[in-house]
Amino acid sequence: MAEATFQVDVVSAERELFSGDSTGVYARGVEGDIGLLPRHQPALVLLGHAPVRIKRPDGDQVRIAVHHGFLECRGDELTVLADLAELAVEIDVERARAARARAVRQLEQASTDQEAERARAALSRAELRLGLVKAEQDA
Amino acid sequence: MAAGAAELRTLWRRIDSVRSTQKITHAMELIAASRITRAREAVEAARPYAVMITRVMRDLATEATVGDHPLLSEHEELRRIGVVVISGDRGLAGAYNANILRRADRLVEQEEQAGREVRRYVVGRKAQQTYSYQGRDIAQYWTGVTDRPRYADAAEIAERIIADYSAGEVDRVWVCFTNFRSALRQVPSVLQLLPVRERELSGGEGYAPEYLFEPSPRTLLEQLVPRYVEHRMYAALLESSASEHASRQRAMSNATDNAGELIEDLTREANAARQAAITTEISEIVSGAEALSSG
């Protein structure tokens, strides 16, 4: 029997990034990692800054960086909604490295909590991007 | 004869000048047309997210107690009202900027007559210039956004407004934006951004009991409401941007047509002047020959 699949859509506020069949979706929620297979119990999960990994029926994997978003699973259908999301293959490594360097510098120089908070957020975004690119290359 | 030639030169110079203006307006028309397409694509691309977030919000609202979320509850007293005005950064867009500013003025007048103070937030250089000229206070302004709005811009604006609303600085927030109905019709409109109206949240189906929530529905809703507000801000920016480009395209298309008519008129005038100069010259030669032969 062929592996069970479900319909997965990844939608950011600006555009639709992915729409297609999948045999499994792996993500990091704010309360821990979660993996969802077809016919999973319906769920609504808040995501942090984390990669979402989508397994295609042909064995390929699609990696997407999600910055603030959530995931809704309703049995045969799974939707990831994100403020901002990027496909791993679209990430500009040079820019992400520069952004990380900038964030580290800003974090050191931050004089107020707000500035530090901003720098930390920028840093975690840059690290997520770079981690994702690395995972894509290793695969 | 010399006077005729000078008049002719002036006419040709004017025709050249109108023609180069026409080239510019025509180029602007084409650019605006391509931007409308892009702006409308952005509106379309944002739709799936809008549909989803609205549905999830509604469903969650039936699950959690909505009333006490700070962005969902009305302030008891309305003392200060926030008004966000979305205009363009540039002119040459027909009545686009004037229309939205007039709509905003009407809203402000209503609020002030009701005895409430108004605090302005401004997107776009045109509105900012107008208000500074009129000597009105602006809480904050953003420029460089409306040509091609990004979600990050909307999030930044929403963040400031949510902060002010949560701190009790403003008790209600309106957004004045231009609704893109079609390429020919753009309507200056007003929407209530904060507090999020209850009817926007009603009609949810709720969740089956076996649903897994991570974290609790209440926390989820708390996280989602600011996202929803950001999203509405983003949608208003996109609509306004598409409207601005459509207005500019129409204005520039009219300008190009007018320039064409002007060139036609001036050419006719120049031809008449040339004809008159030739006639004068011939009659001078004839009368000169006449004078010689009769002498």
How would you describe this structure in keywords?
heterodimer; A: 139 residues; alpha+beta; Single alpha-helices involved in coiled-coils or other helix-helix interfaces; 2 domains; B: 295 residues; alpha/beta; Pyruvate Kinase, Chain: A, domain 1; five-stranded mixed beta sheet; 63% helix; elongated
How would you describe the overall organization of this protein?
The complex is a heterodimer of chains A (139) and B (295). With 139 residues, chain A is α+β, with helices and mostly antiparallel strands. Chain A has two domains: 6-89, F0F1 ATP synthase delta/epsilon subunit, N-terminal (ATP Synthase, domain 1, Sandwich), CATH 2.60.15; 92-138, Single alpha-helices involved in coiled-coils or other helix-helix interfaces, CATH 1.20.5. Chain A has helices at 93-109, 113-138, and strands spanning 6-12, 16-22, 24-29, 32-36, 43-47, 50-55, 61-73, 77-87. Chain B has 295 residues and is of the alpha/beta class. Chain B has one domain (32-250): Pyruvate Kinase, Chain: A, domain 1, CATH 3.40.1380.10. Chain B contains six helices and six strands. Chain B has a five-stranded mixed β-sheet, with helices on both faces. In chain B, helix 2 links the parallel strand 1 and strand 2. In chain B, helix 1 (2-63) runs antiparallel to helix 6 (217-294) and helix 4 (151-166) packs across helix 6 (217-294). Chain B starts with a helix and ends with a helix. The chains are: A alpha+beta (139), B alpha/beta (295). Chains A and B meet through strand 1, strand 5, strand 7 and strand 8 of A and helix 1, helix 4, strand 6 and helix 6 of B. Strand 5 of chain A pairs parallel with strand 6 of chain B, so a sheet runs across the interface.
